[in-house]
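Two entries, shown back to back:
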Amino acid sequence: MTVAPKVQRKSNASQQKTRSEPRQRPQPNPFAPLQPDELVAAPGPLLMMMEARAPWEWAAMWAATPWLNRLPVGDGHPVIVFPGLGASDTSTLMLRNFLRQRGYTAYPWLQGFNFGPRQGVLDACRSHVRDIANRHNEPVSLIGWSLGGIYAREIAKEQPDNARCVITLGSPFVGHPRATNAWRFYELVSGQAVHDHALTAQVRVPPGCPTTSIFSKTDGVVAWQCSINEPSASSENIEVQASHIGMGLNPLALYAIADRLRQDPQRWKKFDLQGARKWFYKIGHALPELTPREQR
């Protein structure tokens, strides 16, 4: 008879301890099976070596300057450019200068090197977009290179009234982050794991504003299948021949960016292949089907 109360008190204490413990947030399971669209492999060694052509794209941009200068001047609306992983505003300087020459008011992201969404980075980006939109009293176009494109898309979803359009350059917003050759570096500098299926599902949802993905099948860092917007009336995919680290300097990409920024969001039309464009561009408005080789 003397044991029962003691057992009861131990049980009550155990229950109180359980109730007092903070509830832990479920952690992503790194061994969870991948979804079919996450089975794309990262670019192979040959494509990685082809990234060495980036200096030639820089030279091509200078050679194409007379052609680019003939493009119609924009309406002066504000544009914010987000750099890629491990890069800073220096990497987007020439792109922003090009935008200014085309009549736009181009801004850097002002967050130093992009080492992932570390503490305070996303909040600063949100405030930056909001401040620029209020300063100009109109929505802002958001351009993101690689990881910077993820920021652009997410902020556009959070601030639909402040986002005029989104343009991404080789950004991996579909599929698993391991389908890039930069995921280990991302984990190293950001301190965050890439194994998060809930976050992957969130990132792939497109913004409500017009959204353009400029990608290359010869990208040596990001598998091109990871840069394909799902079909919709306000999203599109433009294929160019470019390297990943040179895409923001590639004259074909610059031309497509200028063409997209000139679109009126209220009468937005997808990029077409009229005239000489068909020789330099390809367009796709549907997700690619995975082949057995790509599923390995």
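entry 2 starts here
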Amino acid sequence: MPKDGEPAGGKPIAASQIPEPQEAPMQLEERAVAVAPKVNTSPSHGLWALTDRDLRKWYTNPYQLIISLVQPIIWMGLFGKALNFSTFIASGAPPAAVNQIMLSFFGTTSYFSFLVCGMLVFIVLFTSAFSGMSVVWDRRFGFMNKALTTSVSRGTIVMSKILQSVGKSLIQAFVVLIIGIALGMETNNLTVAGVAGTFAVIFLVAMGLSGLFVMLSLRSSDWQTQMAIINLLNLPLLFASNALFPVKIMPTWLQDVVRVNPVSYAIDGIRQMLIGATGTNPLWLDFTVVFGFAAFFSIIGIIASWRLLKK
């Protein structure tokens, strides 16, 4: 007869052959939760992740940066150097008289320096215009629907589009400034404070313009429609400003348009800080208008996203 605890054959059972007790389903679930990685759901992390995603696509493709700089370089190198207003004003006149006329019209004796300041905002305008295209492509390729299913808020998605455009604008404006100095922009009034103030204005105007174009693209899934909006707004914002010519030589009705164009205030402030030009407005007014423009369209873009940004 086998003893208690022995099999019928009388041989003892090895410890390795004894089956381990099964865990209850609740215990397995608790263990899975315990080892699950902790997900960072803070708004700042989501904002950085989405902004870095768009910037990474840009700075890993140097051709985009080069192509975006071609147009302002052509304007500065060909238009700025070829259009020498001092020769048109008074051929053979004393240099002092020519300089006085240039100062009265352009606020500086160098039209090229006048144009370079306009080109700094020119590159921001065109970079900001394509911030809305990023929303369109994300919607067309399905990434927007994935982003909307996460814990990231709609306002964070809008701000990431704005900030990635601002980052591109600052880098491109810096490159344009270096090229402008190399081509002969006046540097007599160039100071660290002036450069810092210039890029503060560029930051604000880029935020305002990006907020405007992102807001106009929230419900768009057709890139042709978005391109039509860009073409509709870009050229009027550029030519109805003081980027290329002083306000004094414009028709009266156009001068009224220039005075309500925030791009004009940004350029006017940059000229005062960068080349010491005589400004159309006080510097504090330029900063106030550009700051209000940036705050308004950033806030409006976030509010609009609550209703317009849907799957």
